[in-house]
Amino acid sequence: MSGDVPEAYLGSWRTTISNHDGKNTRSLVIKQGRIGDDVLILVADGPTGSDTYHCVFTAPLTAVSSGGGKLKLGPSTVTSGAPLPSCVPGSSTTLTVGNGHTLRRTNSDIGETLTYTR
After folding, report:
1. Which of 10, 20, 38, 71 has the most crowded Cβ, counting Cβ within 10 A?
2. How many other C-beta atoms can be found within 10 angstroms of the C-beta atom of residue 15?
3. 50 falls in which pLDDT band (50, 70, 90)?
4. Residues 108/93, Cβ–Cβ less than 8 Å
5. Cα 17–Cα 21–Cα 88 angle in degrees, nearest 5
6. So what CATH class is 7-117?
7. What one-character DSSP code corresponds to residue 82?
8. Which residues contact 83 (CB under 8 A, 6 or more apart)?
9. Is 86 helix (H, G, I), strand (E, B) or coil?
């Protein structure tokens, strides 16, 4: 399938976030698509004190910078989750690929950046 997503972004990426409840994993897949298509699938797992959560989100591609250096994604949508109140959709994000083995995802609203690896 042809699309607007540069090859360097495609595939699976992973990171871990630590907070007061413990370690939380984020696994995302970037797939090929055109502007307006859902190209990001994000799975978030982690502890919630005495329980755990599992959330799945998608997000659409809204723009690709000239030369493909940045991808802009629209706000995410929850596709499934348990417990559902733990699954809060995110705002728009920007993706940039580092050396081919890292992907930075920056939240447009708060400027928070997470770095993922293959």
Report:
1. 71
2. 16
3. confident
4. yes
5. 65
6. mainly beta
7. E
8. 48, 51, 53
9. helix
